[in-house]
Automatic annotation (TrEMBL):
<dbReference type="GO" id="GO:0005737">
    <property type="term" value="C:cytoplasm"/>
</dbReference>
<keyword id="KW-0846">Cobalamin</keyword>
<feature type="binding site">
    <location>
        <position position="193"/>
    </location>
    <ligand>
        <name>[4Fe-4S] cluster 1</name>
    </ligand>
</feature>
<feature type="binding site">
    <location>
        <position position="200"/>
    </location>
    <ligand>
        <name>[4Fe-4S] cluster 2</name>
    </ligand>
</feature>
<feature type="domain" description="4Fe-4S ferredoxin-type">
    <location>
        <begin position="181"/>
        <end position="210"/>
    </location>
</feature>
<keyword id="KW-0671">Queuosine biosynthesis</keyword>
<feature type="binding site">
    <location>
        <position position="196"/>
    </location>
    <ligand>
        <name>[4Fe-4S] cluster 1</name>
    </ligand>
</feature>
<protein>
    <recommendedName>
        <fullName>Epoxyqueuosine reductase</fullName>
        <ecNumber>1.17.99.6</ecNumber>
    </recommendedName>
</protein>
<keyword id="KW-0819">tRNA processing</keyword>
<comment type="function">
    <text>Catalyzes the conversion of epoxyqueuosine (oQ) to queuosine (Q), which is a hypermodified base found in the wobble positions of tRNA(Asp), tRNA(Asn), tRNA(His) and tRNA(Tyr).</text>
</comment>
<feature type="binding site">
    <location>
        <position position="58"/>
    </location>
    <ligand>
        <name>cob(II)alamin</name>
    </ligand>
</feature>
<dbReference type="GO" id="GO:0046872">
    <property type="term" value="F:metal ion binding"/>
</dbReference>
<feature type="binding site">
    <location>
        <position position="218"/>
    </location>
    <ligand>
        <name>cob(II)alamin</name>
    </ligand>
</feature>
<keyword id="KW-0411">Iron-sulfur</keyword>
<dbReference type="GO" id="GO:0008616">
    <property type="term" value="P:tRNA queuosine(34) biosynthetic process"/>
</dbReference>
<dbReference type="GO" id="GO:0052693">
    <property type="term" value="F:epoxyqueuosine reductase activity"/>
</dbReference>
<keyword id="KW-0560">Oxidoreductase</keyword>
């Protein structure tokens, strides 16, 4: 079989299936192993115990899936075409900001199903072959594989950047036993720019190409199960699920492309919902509306925890204060604690504002 021709066909089939780009990487990721181990040893993975559990297996595709000779790396754009401007939402203290990737349906199923279809198409031409598909679902170094496949370069915020599409896309892989010729990596184009580092609300990008997840708002609002550390709550602002600041500020995202995928279209008005509105959702409402969404996995309790922080940072309007008071005695201790912090935050701000008023001479 002409594997060069097959690789060319695979790239075209990937585009036809809705992917923005596809490339091929070999399985030698040894260059990334020292950085991975240093990151784990520093404890930057926080409560993501699975990151440490798999260790170097993450950097060794042929150990994860025995027989793997090549990895097909694909990217799929996720920015919905009709959504409220992200900066506008972040600047609206009463609005709830949700990461752009989570405004539509859960990407795991969408990307995985397309990868399966791509694998099926390959099988029609190549015959039976060994493969396994992944998308953020196993110990896979997706950015490293995508970099080696020529799909872009690792930015200083550690995400993949493409000259043609910025960084707002999902990554997925097909591990295969087909000996496909690998693509060449592309040159990095971040230069001396540090906008992503400077823009991070919690300074989680502790050095270029190095993120302390324990400080990252995406980790704090999604991965962390318990209480959000007090020091980070004011910095979170109105970001209630994930954070995009490091991407929004990146000059390369002026080339970010809207997704034509209907499943990634905004659902339930999540791009312009208020904190008060979302905080009023009962558990059954949350489960109904968030079914099929990536947000569903954090559950109603952590959803309320995040919203309580957002409300604590919001303007002290009657509606905001009433919303917080409505859950002051919530059955969840986690929610109660964050609501109490939010109410105390409003009280402290009112006291400061009162002290700052000029003496009217009365």
């Amino acid at each position: 079989m002409d594997f060069h021709a097959l690789k060319s066909d695979i790239k075209q089939w990937a585009l036809a299936l809705g992917f923005g780009q596809a490339g091929v990487s070999g399985v030698d990721l040894s260059a990334a192993e020292p950085g991975l181990m240093a990151w784990l040893e520093a404890g930057f993975h926080g409560e993501m115990e699975y990151m440490a559990r798999h260790g170097l297996k993450r950097a060794r595709p042929a150990e994860l899936v025995p027989g793997t000779l090549s990895v097909i790396s694909c990217r799929m754009n996720y920015t919905p075409p009709h959504s409220r401007n992200a900066w506008e939402t972040l600047g609206d203290g009463e609005a709830a900001y949700i990461s752009r990737y989570a405004l539509g349906r859960d990407y795991h199923k969408v990307v995985r199903n397309r990868l399966q279809k791509l694998a099926d198409r390959i099988g029609e031409v190549a015959g039976p072959f060994g493969f396994r598909v992944f998308t953020d679902s196993a110990p896979v170094m997706e950015v490293q594989l995508a970099t080696q496949a020529g799909n872009g370069w690792r930015g200083k915020h550690t995400l993949l950047i493409s000259r043609e599409a910025g960084s707002m896309f999902f990554l997925g892989e097909i591990f295969t036993d087909l000996p496909l010729p690998p693509d060449e990596s592309v040159q990095e184009h971040c230069g001396r720019c540090t906008r992503c580092i400077d823009a991070c609300p919690t300074q989680a990008i502790v050095a270029p190409y190095r993120v302390d997840a324990r400080r990252c708002i995406s980790y704090l609002t999604i991965e962390l199960h318990g209480a959000i550390p007090l020091e980070f709550r004011p910095m979170i602002g109105n970001r209630v699920y994930g954070c995009d600041d490091c991407q929004l500020i990146c000059p390369w995202n002026r080339f970010a492309q809207h997704s034509p995928e209907p499943d990634f279209a905004v659902r339930h008005g999540l791009d312009h919902s208020s904190l008060v509105e979302l905080f009023s959702w009962s558990e059954s409402t949350f489960q109904t509306k968030m079914a099929g969404s990536a947000i569903y996995r954090i559950g109603h309790e952590r959803w309320l925890r995040n919203l309580a922080v957002g409300l604590g940072n919001a303007p002290s309007t009657p509606a905001v204060l009433a919303a917080l008071q409505s859950r002051a005695d919530d059955e969840s201790a986690l929610v109660r604690e964050h609501v109490a912090w939010a109410l105390a935050n409003h009280m402290a701000r009112r006291q400061v504002a009162g002290q700052a008023k000029p003496d009217d001479g009365g």
